[in-house]
Design goal:
two-stranded parallel sheet; seven-stranded parallel beta sheet
């Protein structure tokens, strides 16, 4: 197939592009390199079946030229990160909604399937676990910027399903806390990357809140596997959770990273207010129901957390 991957030089995107090329597809990577990096594509940049294009999904003229060439679009380009949501909500809202609208409009014009990368943030503060794809969304006040990313992604999903109702083949994938090599290790990126970097530098690991909040961390290889399985036409017109369903408390995750890196780092509790400012809200737990992923995609995560962390730690040791 001819495939476009938006955000293909990013964390998940670069792993996805590599896997698609290994399967024999022809791939165009579109990335504005705001968070993606060309060196993530170093091993494939000269592959004759791969073409890198620097640009944004908000550039509709450029996007039209690319989508006209392909059968399928993996739309991963997004503005994300907790710090972004509280510091620059307009950047998050406009960056996510405008780009997705362009992708869907042009994919509909050229009859190209879209696989849209959504997020477990969709479920918000819902405490009824595990989260099924039809579970309610529970958000806080619109005065709290923390919810702007989840709100933008929710609207993106509504647009996906609106185009699906018009006949566009669309699959929505809700990723649960992907981690692994190439994840951004900053306050704007994932907690696993932040912990590993701090541990390797013998710096304190900042645990926000009381550290008892739990998440299900998914090794990027499993995230990519589920994404590729979404090529099936049986996945069209629905949302599907992609992740692990084995929760761990953030405090325990930090301790595990310290143990695996053999670091002397200490754990330091930091209030949400200190980390993100006044009014930040968090969720106690997120656990996906994977029954739909299993039945429709045949998806099962295979990488245990400790195994995935060791592989990720090794990558960071080599790329410090």
């Amino acid at each position: 197939m001819n495939i476009l991957v938006t955000g293909g030089a990013g964390f998940i995107g670069s792993h996805l592009v590599e896997s698609l090329l290994k399967l024999g597809h022809h791939v165009w990577t579109l990335d504005d390199l705001s968070t993606g990096r060309l060196d993530y594509l170093e091993g494939i940049i000269k592959n004759p079946r791969h073409k890198f294009v620097q640009g944004s999904v908000t550039d509709k003229k450029l996007l039209k030229k690319l989508i006209a060439k392909v059968d399928l679009v993996y739309h991963l380009a997004a503005v994300l990160g907790v710090k972004n949501t509280v510091e620059d909500p307009l950047k998050v809202i406009e960056g996510n909604i405008d780009g997705t609208r362009n992708v869907l409009e042009l994919a509909y014009l050229y009859k190209s399937k879209v696989v849209f990368s959504s997020t477990s943030e969709i479920y918000g503060k819902n405490e009824l676990l595990p989260f099924h794809e039809t579970s309610d969304r529970v958000y806080g006040s619109t005065e709290i910027h923390r919810w702007c990313y989840a709100t933008a992604k929710s609207l993106d999903e509504h647009m996906c399903f609106a185009y699906a109702a018009k006949g566009l083949p669309v699959t929505v994938l809700r990723y649960f806390n992907a981690y692994g090599p190439r994840q951004i290790n900053s306050q704007y990126g994932g907690v696993v990357a932040r912990f590993i970097r701090a541990a390797l530098m013998e710096e304190p690991l900042e645990v926000h809140g009381n550290g008892r909040q739990t998440r299900c961390f998914t090794y990027v290889g499993d995230t990519v596997s589920g994404s590729i399985q979404a090529l099936k036409k049986e996945a069209n017109g629905i949302a599907i959770n992609i992740g692990s369903n084995q929760p761990i408390a953030i405090r325990e995750l930090a301790k595990l990273v310290v143990d695996l890196t053999k670091s002397k780092s200490q754990l330091v509790l930091k209030t949400y207010e200190e980390a993100y400012g006044v009014g930040y809200e968090d969720m106690k737990s997120r656990v996906p129901d994977l029954s739909r992923a299993r039945s429709i995609l045949g998806y099962r995560p295979t990488v245990r957390l400790e195994e995935g962390l060791l592989q990720t730690i090794e990558w960071y040791k080599q790329h410090r």
